[in-house]
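Comment thread on ticket #2218

A.B. wrote:
> Attaching the input chain for the structure job we discussed in standup.
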Amino acid sequence: MRLLLVDENAGSGALLRLLESARSRGIAVRTATRRVMQRFSERAPSEVLALVGRDPDAGVEPMLAAGGAVWLLVGVAYPGNVGMAIRTAEVSGAEGIAIQADFDHEGRRAALRASMRADRFMPVHWCGPEIVLDAAERLGHSVFALDEAGESAPWQLDLTGGRVFVVGGETGGIPDETLRRCHARIRVPMAGFIPCYNLQAAVSAVAAERLRQQAD
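C.D. wrote:
> Ran it. Output below, let me know if you need it in another format.
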């Protein structure tokens, strides 16, 4: 158990004792609104929910070692787009996300706000791509680029298991030195005149296909 999420208006004696016990064991405790608790609860809103699995404070190598999907955004420019991609990664069950962006402190805060603070539930790293790619190579993970010039549609590749999905910036795409380290390139089908999808839309398309494959 990594985290307890607690209704900000809850405060029964039994709940307070539970939270005290959790904190004594090093389990983080955070509050949320009733609306957030309702969204996360399968049935009636719960006063307290537990996060099991992903450690929001995990480093890059432990994040990859968990064996799931990790997203890598390279050269991205707009905090809003980054925030939506972070949110999509979390919603789709990714182990975490790494971002190379020339953001100052306020830019990173804006991205995390747009993500609905998904960093509370999974690791979000601000680092260069080589850190993630080196760790992926050590662990034997496949690295897939989302590239409009790619040769494979998402459903033509096995997206399950330990995978790193690389997405380039809104204008420059994925740098050649990063593309050379990718094992395959995924092209999300397009039919219009604009040359590519929005960053977050492409992430969503591939993330949804990965979930479909996992369910089969």
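A.B. wrote:
> Thanks. Noting for the ticket: The chain has a mean pLDDT of 93.
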